[in-house]
Write a structure and sequence with these properties.
Helix content: over 70%
CATH superfamily of one domain: Tetratricopeptide repeat domain
Strand content: under 5%
CATH topology of one domain: Serine Threonine Protein Phosphatase 5, Tetratricopeptide repeat
Distance between the termini: 162 Å
Number of helices: 43
Number of strands: 0
CATH architecture of one domain: Alpha Horseshoe
Radius of gyration: 74 Å
Oligomer: single chain
């Protein structure tokens, strides 16, 4: 424990000064001598001398002393002797004091012995002098200064004993106390000091006496009593020490008083430390005056503990004051000192807790602010500092530990700082760190809010743009975990933040990226108008945005235009994008497709507007601008279709033929055949058209379509054969293929056979023709409910055709010898022919029936004529020949009549509205057979008219 300085040394210094001043006053108040004209020693007692004011003319004390000594030598009986002796003692005392003050060495140093001797001589010579109390006082002082303390003490004892009412009583008792204290007689010293303090009137020695009384008690171990004395000194000396003052600046204190005050605090602290420390202080703070310097008591005790390396006790002492006086103006300063102590002595955890306590006690929402606004204002710099330190400490801890608790603790302190000092220059930086902290702790939504505050709610600062950009990163992080409407809401918020960033920081190097991302998000959010608007901002940036950003911007512009049906603008946009995309970039293919689609859509619009020519031009442009696009095939097909609509058959044929060869596997190939067939038909290219229908038949999955296409193909081959632009055999084979694949329905099957039979007849293949005719007849007759008018007609026609070879066989038989046999044969053949025609006629098909009737009549007529023209038997006489001829005519007549009857039957059909070539030929035949009835033109015309 550090011992206090010797209080006697502190007390003696002012005592010396006071004594010197007193002596100086005595020396300056010398009495004059009456009557300058009476220069005898006797006259000295009656003369007065006017002593002018000291003009500070240097005097020689040694000469004065010598003069006084000579006076005493020459005037042993003079009435002034007592005064002269007293003056001489004082002068010798002054000289010693001056030398002592000048610090002269032993050779010429102070010598109080002469003064001691002089004062002793005076007392011996004048024991009853009324001024002896002063002489005793001076003698004691000289003895003390000479080092004879015990003798000086005895002298002072006599003074206070013999002169209880002397003016020097208080000082004498005070000096007695000091001497006793120096002699370590602390009990008597205490009593001496108590005597000084016991006077009714306050003297200049009271404070010193009270101070030394305390030390005397302290030396005796009477600590509680000592503290009463020390607090009394503080009460007197610290009256001007307000709550805002300090020991160094207290007005009205001399250096000695200041040292006394400081030492009093120090010994008070020692006393308290030897009791219960800070717990002992409240018992002595028992009036308002002491409350004014109470904090100094705690403060000094804490400093003592620090010197004793009792760090925790020092901090607790200061904290005790703050707890006892939470609203005191000095409470923040003492609490701040607690923090300094912990920090300065290696107790960071305790310092941290103390900072928290400080912020809690003196922060924005504290009671201290309401109770002591001025004190609160003074505390704010430290509150700010500690808030910052707390936030940074936990921020650093969180970055090391990655613990969410540390992060949230730092967040708490950052928020406290921001709430407390919203307009402070450092708040923006702290708000930025708060946002960074939240971002690190994955509280991205909160981080975004704080970043935006930093960026847009403070005056412009260094971190504003970084914060604005970081807010966008926070939104992006949130979007990764969001879905559905939550994701859309985040994206919309992100876009708003991005546009705010671009508006606030237009020259920032990241503005292009920010706007680009915003444009993409708006497009994804199906807000093409805003997306395009933002993309245009990117394209207008100065300096220009990076190529990658312009690429995205043009893409958004193009997509938006495309979605809005502005396909020409979309085409231009995609061209701009492709100019920025490397050839090997994977995204290029899709962009090419988009470019092709925009051109293709222009073709569709033109087509819908009825501008076929423009539509064809756009469709054909697809191949030029995007030859590898998938839509190229559709475009070429649609171009051909548009040509067909414009009846550009040649162009359509050329385009469709190219389509077929260029896109063999395209789904539209199934439709190409039909369109090509149409073009070929319009150009009368029957064989090519037939070939297309064959393709349709071969590829169509619809059986009905395939059947009809194959039939149409056969018909076109037939048409080509008729036009001699294709062989009959090809047409025949086409019908045969059809018949093989589609034997039913009955009507189409018989029709095919009929046409094949026609080609067989043309080729002279009578056998094939006959077989087919037979199949037709049999097929129709066996058709049942499937029979139609056409099958009946074909059956009838086939039956009619079947009769021709039978008739041919009939006509081959000539009525020559042997006449009877040949007649029989011919008659049998005639019967066959008649049956064949009867079969055809029985179908009831008008033109077949008229033909069958005509041919039947012709056979009858031919048979009759054949009989008449038959070879005559040889060796007949003339009469026999005539008789034979008559007989033949009689035999032939019924046949001729039958022929007429049949022709008339045909002729009668004219009245039924049937007047085909066979009816006409029947009329012609009747005109020859019955010229009287049918041979006249007017009659014939009348008949015809009648028929009509």
């Amino acid at each position: 424990m550090r011992r206090p300085s010797d209080p006697t040394r502190l007390a003696l210094r002012p005592l010396v000064v006071l004594t010197m001043l007193a002596l100086a006053g005595c020396a300056s108040q010398k009495k004059g001598f009456p009557g300058d004209d009476q220069p005898t020693l006797a006259t000295l007692g009656t003369r007065t001398a006017e002593v002018p004011k000291d003009k500070k003319i240097a005097s020689n004390e040694e000469q004065t002393i010598t003069a006084y000594r000579k006076f005493l030598e020459v005037a042993p009986k003079a009435p002034q002797r007592a005064e002269a002796m007293r003056r001489l003692g004082d002068l010798e005392m002054d000289v010693a004091d001056q030398r002592s003050a000048a610090g002269q060495g032993p050779a010429s140093g102070p010598d109080y012995r002469a003064a001691v001797k002089r004062y002793e001589e005076f007392l011996k010579a004048f024991p009853d002098d009324k001024g002896n109390d002063r002489v005793h006082y001076q003698l004691a002082r000289a003895q003390e200064q000479a080092g004879d303390l015990e003798t000086a003490l005895k002298t002072l004892d006599r003074l206070v004993a013999n002169y209880p009412n002397t003016l020097y009583r208080d000082e004498a008792n005070f000096r007695r106390g000091e001497l006793l204290f120096s002699l370590k007689d602390y009990a008597r010293a205490e009593r001496a000091y108590s005597t000084v303090l016991g006077t009714q009137h306050r003297t200049e020695f009271n404070d010193r006496a009270l101070y030394m009384q305390g030390w005397s008690r302290f030396k005796q171990g009477k600590l509680e009593d000592a503290l009463q004395s020390f607090f009394g000194v503080l009460d007197a000396r610290a009256r001007g020490l307000g709550s805002e003052g300090s020991l160094e600046t207290l007005p009205g204190l001399s250096r000695a008083d200041r040292e006394l005050l400081e030492d009093t605090f120090r010994v008070t602290s020692i006393s308290l430390a030897n009791l219960q420390g800070a717990e002992s202080i409240p018992g002595y703070i028992n009036d308002p005056q002491r409350h004014a310097y109470e904090y100094r008591v705690y403060e000094q005790l804490a400093e003592l503990y620090l010197k004793q390396e009792r760090v925790k006790d020092a901090a607790d002492t200061l904290g005790a004051f703050a707890r006892r006086n939470p609203l005191h103006a000095q409470a923040p300063q003492l609490q701040a000192r607690v923090i300094e102590i912990y920090q300065g002595n290696g107790f960071p955890a305790l310092a941290l807790d103390a900072k928290k306590d400080y912020v809690s006690r003196y922060g924005v929402g504290s009671e201290f602010r309401r109770a002591n606004p001025a004190g609160w204002q003074k505390a704010q710099p430290l509150v700010k500092t500690h808030l910052t330190e707390l936030a940074r400490h936990y921020h650093a801890s969180a970055q090391k530990s990655k613990a969410s608790a540390d992060y949230q603790e730092a967040v708490k302190w950052y928020r406290a700082y921001i709430a407390a000092y919203p307009n402070d220059p450092e708040t923006a930086q702290n708000n930025f760190l708060l946002a960074e902290l939240l971002y690190e702790d994955k509280h991205l939504a909160e981080a975004a809010v704080e970043y935006e505050k930093v960026a847009y709610q403070y005056p412009n600062h260094a971190k504003a743009a970084d914060a604005g950009y970081a807010a966008l990163l926070s939104y992006a992080g949130q979007e990764k975990a969001a879905q559905g409407e939550a994701l859309a809401a985040l994206q919309r918020a992100s876009v708003d933040s991005a546009l705010r960033f671009a508006k606030t920081f237009p020259k920032d190097s990241r503005t292009g990226t920010v706007l680009t991302n915003a444009s993409e998000k708006l497009f994804a959010l199906r807000d093409p108008e805003r997306a395009e608007s933002v993309a245009q901002q990117v394209l207008k940036l100065d300096p220009p945005a990076a190529a990658a950003q312009r690429r995205v911007a043009w893409t958004v512009v193009a997509h938006s235009a495309f979605d809005k049906g502005r396909f020409a603008e979309a085409e231009q946009g995609y061209r701009e994008v492709l100019a920025l995309v490397p050839e090997k970039d994977a995204a290029r293919n899709e962009l090419v497709e988009r470019l092709a689609a925009s051109v293709y859509k222009q073709g569709e619009l033109a087509r819908a507007a009825g501008d076929g020519k423009a539509a064809i031009a756009h469709f054909n442009r697809v191949a030029a601008v995007a030859p590898t696009s998938t839509v190229r095939a559709n475009a070429q097909y649609d171009a051909a279709a548009a040509m067909i609509a414009m009846k550009d058959w040649e162009g359509a044929s050329r385009s469709l033929e190219d389509f077929r060869s260029r896109f063999p596997n395209h789904p539209l190939q199934a439709e190409v055949g039909a369109k090509l067939a149409l073009a070929y038909l319009e150009r009368q290219q029957w064989s090519q058209a037939a070939g297309e229908f064959e393709r349709v038949a071969a590829t169509s999955k619809d059986a009905n379509v395939a059947r009809e296409a194959l039939w149409q193909s056969a018909e076109l081959h037939e048409k080509a054969a008729d036009a001699k632009s294709g062989p009959r055999a090809t047409a025949a084979k086409a019908y045969e293929r059809y018949l093989k694949q589609y034997p039913l329905p009955l009507e189409r099957g018989l029709e095919a056979r009929w046409r094949i039979a026609k080609f067989a007849k043309a080729d002279g293949d009578n056998k094939r023709e006959a077989a087919l005719m037979k199949e037709i007849v049999q097929g129709d007759q066996a058709g049942g409910s499937a029979r139609t008018d056409r099958t009946r007609y074909l059956g009838a026609s086939a039956a009619l055709a079947m009769a021709e070879p039978v008739v041919a066989e009939y006509r081959k038989v000539a009525l020559v010898e042997p006449l009877a046999r040949n007649l029989k044969t011919k008659k049998a053949k005639m019967e066959d022919a008649l049956k064949a025609y009867a079969l055809a006629a029985n179908y009831g098909v008008a033109d077949v029936s008229t033909a069958a009737t005509f041919h039947t009549a012709a056979i009858y007529q031919d048979f009759g004529q054949s009989m008449i023209k038959s070879e005559r038997p040889k060796k007949l006489s003339k009469i026999e020949r005539e008789q034979y001829d008559v007989l033949l005519e009689e035999q032939a007549f019924p046949f001729e009549e039958k022929a007429i009857e049949l022709h008339e039957t045909n002729a009668k059909r004219a009245s039924e509205g049937i007047y085909d070539k066979w009816v006409k030929q029947s009329f012609e035949a009747l005109a020859k057979l019955r010229p009287v009835r049918y041979g006249k033109a007017e009659r014939a015309e009348g008949v015809i008219d009648a028929i009509r």
